[in-house]
Design brief:
8 helices, single chain, eight-stranded antiparallel β-sheet, 299 residues, alpha+beta, Urate Oxidase, 34% strand
């Protein structure tokens, strides 16, 4: 004989009767499938999912229902804004007995892309791009917002100017009294002294978020990443040989930027996106603190 399992969420009354903004779960491990053009990959995600709880007396929401609905994302169906809206609607309907009207979901994952070396043919390596996807259906209004983090190198314009002046002073000390200078002597001097001073560079990162339309066929992550990397011009590299390292050094030298420059470049590149926001952070090698800038959506 099967005993009836107790359900204290129904039999025990709550000591305090109040509606709650959100109730649910965080940190659920989940495989998700991303498909964009020729890119198709199953990735490990962590999901946070919640519903609102306007019914003041309810406790012990149906978390197993939320979990089982969320698990449908792990069945190989590509993640799109449309499928997320359907999922959130199903979560709301599964909690009709709690008077639920809204639901939200966050997916956190690392997008893996194969990146070629700058110069060496056939050389490439994997690069990881942290992604955060926030979808919500609140009182019938759907919103899907995606954020990617792109790492890049930034060389300080001020430091570069000071370094150039130091090299100039050294050159004049050596050749300033000569009316004619042998190019071979100059080349030999530069070989030894062009790095009398060097500008400081640092690994930097841009966090960029945009809104997606519900009818978008994909999340558009690859296109967004490409545009961010084009804007900054110096994305960090994976596999390199000396020729690639030299090319990267040249890119940095020709692409000096303050943190303000980086934020404005990226913002300008995203003019066709909905509600773009940009946060850039230069992890200073000169200071023990970071330089930061924001470009926020226009009201």
């Amino acid at each position: 004989m099967n005993a009836v399992l107790p359900d204290v969420s129904l039999t025990d009354s709550s000591p305090s009767l109040r509606p709650l903004a959100w109730v649910g779960m965080q940190g659920i491990d989940l495989p998700v499938t991303l498909v964009e053009g020729d890119y198709r990959r199953e990735l490990h995600a962590r999901a946070d999912v919640q519903v609102d709880l306007p019914a003041a007396q309810v406790k012990g929401i149906h978390m197993s229902r939320l979990y089982r609905l969320l698990d449908t994302l792990g069945q190989g169906v590509p993640v799109t804004p449309a499928c997320l809206r359907q999922l959130l609607q199903a979560m709301i309907e599964s909690h009709s007995d709690c008077d639920t009207r809204s639901a939200r979901l966050r997916l956190s994952l690392d997008l893996l892309l194969r990146r070629p070396a700058l110069v060496t043919r056939g050389l490439s390596g994997w690069k990881s791009y942290p992604v955060q996807l926030d979808a919500s259906l609140i009182d019938g209004v759907f919103r899907c917002r995606t954020q990617v983090t792109v790492s890049y190198s930034s060389t300080c314009p001020c430091s570069a100017a000071l370094a150039r002046q130091k090299v100039e002073q050294g050159f004049l000390e050596t050749f300033g009294q000569q009316t004619q200078v042998d190019p071979a002597q100059v080349a030999a001097w530069l070989q030894q002294n062009a790095t009398l001073a060097t500008p400081h560079s640092q690994r930097s990162e841009a966090e960029v978020a945009v809104d997606l339309a519900v009818d978008s066929g994909s999340l558009g992550l690859l296109a967004l990443i490409e545009q961010i990397e084009q804007a900054v011009g110096t994305p960090v590299q994976t596999a390199v040989k000396r020729a690639d390292e030299q090319a990267f050094a040249a890119l940095n030298g020709q692409n000096l930027m303050f943190v303000e420059d980086a934020a404005r470049r990226i913002e300008a590149q995203l003019s066709h996106y909905r509600q773009p926001s940009v946060h850039v952070r230069h992890l200073e090698s000169l200071h023990p603190h970071d330089a930061v800038a924001w470009a926020l959506p226009k009201a």
